Amino acid sequence: MSLLTPCNVTADLQEPSPADIRPLHILKETLQLLKRKWKDNHNYAYALDQFKSMRQDLTVSIST
Prior knowledge:
Layout: H1 24-41, H2 44-63
């Protein structure tokens, strides 16, 4: 799984399994990468999409 690969959620909004989400150490690396990318090009749409994905992964990992 890539650092920036969002977890897959089906159209019926089933919660992804813990195996489908990025572990905390990968999310920390992703955050650092996003901060560098933001500093370089300020692509708001890209950053927003990635942060939503990270938030989803964190929410699932906390609830399991």
